[in-house]
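Person: Please work through this fold.
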Amino acid sequence: MGTVAAVMVAVVVAAGLAWSSSAGNVTYDGRSLIIGGQRKILFSGSIHYPEARRDVAVSHTESQGGGLDAIQTYVFWNVHEPFRDRLGGPPPFSDRYDFAGRYDLVRFVKEIQAQGLYVSLRIGPFIESEWKYGGLPFWLHDVPGIVFRSDNEPFKFHMQRFVSKIVSMMKSERLFASQGGPIILSQIENEYQNVEPAFHAKGPPYVRWAAAMAVGLETGVPWMMCKQDDAPDPVINACNGMNCAETFKGPNSPNKPLLWTENWTSMFQRFGEEPYIRTAEDIAFATALFIARGGSFVNYYMYHGGTNFGGFGSSYVTTSYYDQAPIDEYGLIRQPKWGHLRELHAAVKSCSDALLTGRHKNFSLGQLQEVNVFEEASGKCAAFLSNSDRRHSATVQFRNAVYELPAKSISILPDCHTVVFNTAKVNSQWRTRSNTVRQVLDHPERWGAFGDRIVSMGAAPFSATGLLEQMTTTKAETDYLWYSTSYEYRSRIGRPVLHVYSLGHVVHAFINGVYAGSSRDVPGVPGTVLEKEIALHQGENNISLLSVMVGLPDSGAYLERRVAGLRRVTIRGSRNRTEDLIRYHWDDVRFPPGVDPVALNLGSMGKGEAWVNGLSIGRYWSRVEHRTAGLLNHCKYHIPRSFLEPSGNLLVLFEEETGNPLQVSVDTISVRGICGVISEDHPPSLFSRPPPLRQRRPPSVDLQCPAGSTISAVDFASFGTPTGDCRSYATGGCHVFSSKAFVEEACVGKEECSISVSAEQFGGGNPCPGAVKSLLVVASCG
């Protein structure tokens, strides 16, 4: 690691900042954090040690300090404990931690300390951060009985073990401020309120437990939870977002300070998207407004961009991370953003005494204009004049003086008279990044080509019947998983069309070693569909499908239940014949193993009887002429699984009329689509869970997949006045737009779920007064 932290930190150190390593205990009141007995206005910037570059020159950067007081970082559990020798159960465990090189957290914190900066340590250990699996190690997925981020003993055991490990490391190096170190603030959990409702009764106890566990570690510094309005005392609830002065409800106690843990300087970028540009003026306005309304801690997320090395970016997130930050991915200062914020910091710091000890008053100066005044008993005064009109400038009067405020701007007056800074007026220079070609790698003799073979039947390292779930199979160690099977083709089905449905991001198809086509998922539409006419030869054909994940998910409830990879593979002929390959032995075809019921398709036969392994499955009569309805087909005949052997099954047909046995098939029958539609005036099911005493049980939509499968997607959901039924449906004139998201959160990944048909379930209120509301849900099992 060596100079890693100095490399990243020296650029942001505040010019002339004097910092004492003996800060003492950190406390707080309703105004600010209190460090060493003194209230502080603090500006912080996020730098993530696994993402930042390691070779920026630092010899001249200290004088260019950006005016920060602190550096904030997440702790990345899945880089520090990527493997676990034993899952579940009591100790002892064989700990296998990695804190070397770029992952040397202690060295990173010490380098920050050496630059005279404080540290805000976000231990999580769930972090989201557009990071693979939200920072959780994938081995947690395989812990028996685990439910992530809930009142669940296996998860709490491992979470407490890791958080305690990090705290112990910091204590042993005396890095908490209470020990004379730089760490003044720590975070437990992250944005849990976003998913808490999905855990129902298991959510609130988990919040209380997490807070009590963290506080019980006795670090001597405050703990915080961001986006958690009900953070238990003494944990501070903090805000994430772009405009926390306008969106944040504020601390849940008058004795807690107003903290902004993520002031987004840009936005993360997905492959195929343009970079999101947030201007220096917009960031400055939002920051100044937060301070003007009583804020005392602002952290810029990100302040230093980075690189998602090793494929740690989450689904579709680019390798480049927050390159538009004040310091870019390469460690270069991005102007005017960096310089404009430096001026803002200096202007705010010139008001520190009044902000921290003065009496705060707010006055209206117009319809979209206001002033926030901080005045001390001694007469010292600071004022923030705000114009929230996004289009028009404004002229305002304050204390017998006239001030011009540009559109969407704030003027800072450290003496309530003189404007020293306006957020819309940029003084800093602009910089444009350019590329210079230094070497062209155009010498063929210096290149070598190594082709990856297409995995074919019998060549895979292991085989299984059915389609394996991708993340469980790969343990998230690679984005790629080959699926290969052998398919016997007969031209009687007509021109074959391959249909693949996957919950991966990309599918590549190869037929007999020849590329046949690819498909990728569409943003906002669950799953990837590949449908391609393919060329098959008579007899055995090898079908190889490469499923690709462009990163793992990083957020959402029940992350451990997410599934990926191929879910359905069929071959459809031009003669309306479809063969389902889902239960094929993807590396040894046999009679269909698994749990789905098996049927013999005798549509090509006439009338007779069938035996399997000497056991009759009964008479068959595939085509019957009805006197009024015409020809009726009875094609499928159940074969009890108890009749079947793993291989070598014998089928005997006694045919009375005529038929073609070459077109007989063995099928499996499964439930892939489920649906429910219930209105408020439905009587509740007698089999629903009993309600608390004296409470009416509302009706509910109850969904359940067959054993061995889970709800993989919600295809349609509408609470309000949906039209139609489970065969044909649409949203009606009244529709709660969050219906689908709510049902997905409640159901996806589960074998069964129940959603009450009540407005309270969907955010409260009455979306359509006077109308009887219904809930219609259409979902898929996989």
